[in-house]
Design a protein that fits this description.
The complex is a heterodimer.
Chain A: H1 10-13, H2 18-43, H3 47-58, E1 59-64, E2 71-72, E3 78-91, H4 101-111, H5 115-122, E4 128-135, H6 137-146, E5 151-160, H7 168-171, H8 183-187, H9 189-192, E6 197-203, E7 209-217, E8 225-226, H10 231-247, E9 252-259, E10 265-271, H11 290-293, H12 303-313, E11 321-329, E12 334-345, H13 346-352, H14 355-365, H15 368-377, H16 404-411, H17 420-431, E13 435-436, E14 451-452, H18 456-469, E15 487-497, E16 500-513, E17 520-527, H19 536-539, H20 541-554, H21 573-589
Parallel strand pairs in A: 2-8
Antiparallel strand pairs in A: 1-6, 2-3, 3-4, 3-5, 6-7, 9-10, 9-17, 11-12, 13-14, 15-16, 16-17
Chain B: H1 3-57, H2 60-70
The chains are: A alpha+beta, B mainly alpha.
GO cellular component, one term (chain B): cell division site
InterPro entries (chain B): Cell_div_FtsL (IPR011922)
GO biological process, one term (chain B): FtsZ-dependent cytokinesis
């Protein structure tokens, strides 16, 4: 046996097969290659995903809020404004399920809902849910102090209308999304609406903004809108209509005040009205802007227009004497007057509001075509273009379809329809020496040229006839205004109920003042007055009187009718005058 | 290492430090700008609120009530008014 030395071992003589180490080496190489490829992928072509992730961690997109434009009256007084109001949002996946009972209770009472309802809302599947929108600032503060995780406050705007009911139909209102729903809020939505912007920022670990990356879109605030409405005049017109409606137990009423020089609408009042600040009650009849959207048969307020055509044609003069009689037969039903008259002059026909007289003027002197042309040229049968939603056109049937009986009745305002606004507009021709004035609801205090419809001579003659309506012997003595000469025309129209005329009436008065240099046109309508008189001269004329005297005073128009100066209690007029002159000079010296 | 390299190294260091300082300042300024903008918004909202309050206090209905009931005033009428002509 061969001896075995210490330095050798037979095991070492054995050689491992080469392939095993090669395999090992290859596998190591392969794994490293995989890592290399992966590293290359992440840094190269597949980078976008990680970059986006990184950006998401540090950058945020924030909304830049924009506010809705204000609505102002002609004197710059706010009539609609947007104020910040917080909305309460629940992020349901963040709100803990085991929320302390007292916190739930407190939150529910702050939101004015029951606890059960709140719990139900918090359990809903949706990720986020509005618990309540547009809460008061104090409530928002208290909710913040509760520090419930997952309950957040969101900035929103809420619209406020300081004038409330008096201005409701003019401004309209917005919905909870801040979009216009009625009135100017609706028709000028494009200009008023603000467009929120967005920006990208870098935030730190705690969510604080540390750097602006880019402004993605600039916010655009809505434009302010200035109306021609005067809040003072609007308020007094609204109150005058409201009082009359209540006094005569009427169903509704409306009034419109126009500036004859600038064509601006100074007031547009409707009753019943609503409070646009109270969003729960914004439905139903009360929303109707009756002055613009209700058409009616204008009745006797039509007579001055008919007479004006005949005067313009030169076939009659204010002093032309006419036989009236008790009945006038055109067609199957005779035309009658409230009182039978013997002979009347043309001026008296207007003053006494004789149906027969007006019908005779039309039938004897005018063709249907002439009448149709005239009524159309003063805006009847066309919707007024003042940018109001729902303004109606009324109906003037084509003259070729008029039967003689139609023509006779249209002459005194039956078988034709229009809105109170249209009647007021048509009356501007008498105020402006024969010119029809373009009307606007936006402030534009410069003189507007109108379209010529009748001659100045006819307009002046009509004015004096209309003034006689308010003088003794006329139908509307109650239209007289303190300090000012006024003129106008009453109207009392039977309301169409179903197919015939029922026992319901509409009382109107449309007129202008002061007669010496007309500055305003005012039209008043009281619908279905009950209890007592239903005549325009008794119901609508007093409203006209109130509105005219107060409006002209507000506009600083000098009285044109003689006034008996009441003795002042402690000073004679001359003393006051000298005192006033002194103050005036003092003011001037300053 | 010669002199030029040394100068450049110092310059580089100074630049690097000032860059850090500038960035820090930019962030600080940005944060104060942010605060000022939030303040501006808040003040703007306050102004709108005050304007609204003023309007509420000065609306015709309130003036009428205060004048009639608290100050016992009566509406003016032409017969109690003295009209002065403007001197030409």
């Amino acid at each position: 046996m061969r001896p075995v030395g210490f330095s050798t071992t037979p095991n070492l003589v054995l050689r491992l097969p080469m392939w095993r180490s090669r395999l090992m080496l290859f596998m190591l190489f392969f794994v490293f290659m995989l890592l290399l490829i992966r590293a290359f992928w992440i840094q190269g072509p597949g980078n976008a995903f990680y970059e986006a992730k990184g950006v998401r961690g540090t950058q945020r997109e924030l909304e830049l809020p924009a506010s809705r434009g204000k609505i102002l009256d002609r004197n710059g007084q706010v009539i609609a404004t947007s104020l910040e109001a917080k909305s309460v949002i629940a992020y349901n996946d963040t709100v803990p399920d085991d929320l302390a009972a007292d916190k739930v209770q407190k939150l529910a009472s702050l939101l004015q809902i029951s606890e059960a309802e709140l719990r139900k809302k918090l359990r809903e599947e949706r990720k986020q849910i509005f618990l309540k929108r547009q809460v008061d600032p104090e409530v928002a503060q208290q909710i913040k102090q509760l520090e419930i995780p997952g309950i957040g406050l969101n900035n929103e705007y809420r619209r406020f209308y300081p004038e409330g009911e008096a201005m409701a139909h003019v401004v309209g209102f917005t919905n909870v999304e801040d979009r216009g729903q009625e009135g100017m809020e609706l028709s000028r939505e494009k200009e008023l609406a603000g467009h929120p912007g967005a920006r990208r920022v870098v935030v730190d670990r705690l969510g604080r903004v540390v750097e602006d990356v880019a402004i993605l879109q600039l916010p655009q605030n809505g434009k302010d809108l200035q109306l021609s409405i005067d809040s003072k005049i609007q308020f007094l017109a609204y109150n005058a209509v409201k009082n009359a409606v209540e006094q005569h137990h009427a169903s509704a009423g409306g009034a419109v005040v126009l500036d004859t020089q600038t064509g601006e609408i100074l007031a547009l009042a409707n009753y019943p009205s609503y409070n646009p600040n109270d969003r729960k009650k914004l439905t139903g009849e009360q929303l109707r802007n009756r002055v613009l959207t209700d058409t009616f048969e204008p009745g006797s307020t039509m007579k001055p227009l008919t007479v004006a055509i005949a005067l313009e044609k030169g076939v009659i003069t204010p002093t032309t004497n006419m036989a009236i009689g008790a009945k006038y037969l055109v067609g199957p039903k005779p035309i009658t007057d409230t009182h039978p008259y013997g002979n009347l002059t043309v001026a008296q026909i207007i003053q006494k509001s004789s149906n027969i007289g007006t019908a005779k003027i039309a039938m004897n002197n005018l063709s249907a075509e002439e009448m149709w042309n005239f009524y159309t040229s003063v805006g009847l049968g066309q919707a007024p273009k003042i940018g109001f939603p729902g303004a109606v056109a009324g109906t003037v049937h084509p003259y070729k379809k008029w039967m003689p009986t139609d023509q006779a009745r249209i002459a005194f305002g039956y078988g034709i329809s229009g809105s109170l606004f249209q009647v007021a507009r048509a009356y501007t021709i008498f105020a402006r020496d024969g010119e029809l004035v373009p009307l606007t609801i936006e402030r534009s205090p410069e003189f507007k040229p109108g379209t010529h419809v009748i001659s100045a001579k006819t307009a002046i003659e009509m004015r004096s006839m209309m003034e006689s309506v308010t003088e003794p012997g006329g139908t509307a003595i109650k239209a007289q205004a303190e300090g000012y000469r006024v003129g106008g025309k009453t109207g009392t129209a039977h309301k169409l109920v179903g197919k015939g005329y029922g026992n319901k009436y509409r009382a109107y008065f449309a007129g202008l003042a002061p007669i010496s240099a007309p500055r305003i046109v005012v039209a008043v309508m009281i619908d279905e007055p009950t209890g007592g008189s239903h005549y325009g001269g008794d119901v609508a004329a007093p409203v006209f009187s109130t509105i005219v005297s107060e409006t002209l005073r507000t506009l600083n128009v000098l009285p044109d009718s003689p006034i008996k100066q009441k003795a002042m209690q402690d000073q004679s007029p001359t003393q006051i005058q000298s005192a006033a002159v002194k103050t005036n000079t003092a003011v001037l010296k300053r | 290492m010669n002199r030029a390299t040394l100068t450049l190294l110092v310059l580089l260091l100074v630049c690097a430090l000032s860059l850090v300082a500038a960035q820090q300042r930019a962030r600080k300024l940005f944060i104060s700008l942010e605060r000022a903008q939030i303040e501006e918004r808040k003040l703007n909202q306050d102004w709108l609120r005050l304007e609204y309050e003023q309007r509420n206090l000065s609306k015709s209905a309130r003036i009428r009530d205060v004048a009639r009931n608290q100050l016992h005033m009566v509406p003016i009428s032409p017969e109690r008014t003295l009209y002065l002509k403007e001197a030409r």
